[in-house]
From TrEMBL:
SUPFAM superfamilies in UniProt: POZ domain
Pfam families associated with the record: BTB
Lineage top rank: taxon: Eukaryota
Protein name: BTB domain-containing protein
InterPro entries cross-referenced by the UniProt entry: BTB/POZ_dom (IPR000210), SKP1/BTB/POZ_sf (IPR011333)
Signal peptide start and end residues: none
Residue span(s) of domain BTB: 1-52
Amino acid sequence: MEDINIDEFLILLNLIYATETKIDESNVEFVVKLADRFNMKRILDRAEKWLNSDDNDDMATHEKLRLSDQYHLELLQLNCLSSIDSIEKVVEVKKSDSYQFLSEEIKDELFDKMVKLWEEGKLAA
């Protein structure tokens, strides 16, 4: 376990044992990564709940979408995709650093979203 940062692992343990440690933007990425690695469903659920909450409005949709895709957080993925309701938001995801890490399935979903927006007249032809 040489590749695990001890401080990050201690935060994970504090989350498991119901201390006052909370998931926030500063720790959510490594908490999800470690919880996934050690198959900690309860911690993944807590992280997904936090990611879907109003407490993290500062986190970009493309970052949430990347986490949802990488760690199979289905509810978060649905919420992210449903929040992309304009061409500007699709372009924002496409131009982000996160885009290269998205699966082909998510990229297909984004393409389908663009087609739907075009059909609804929300895209310039």
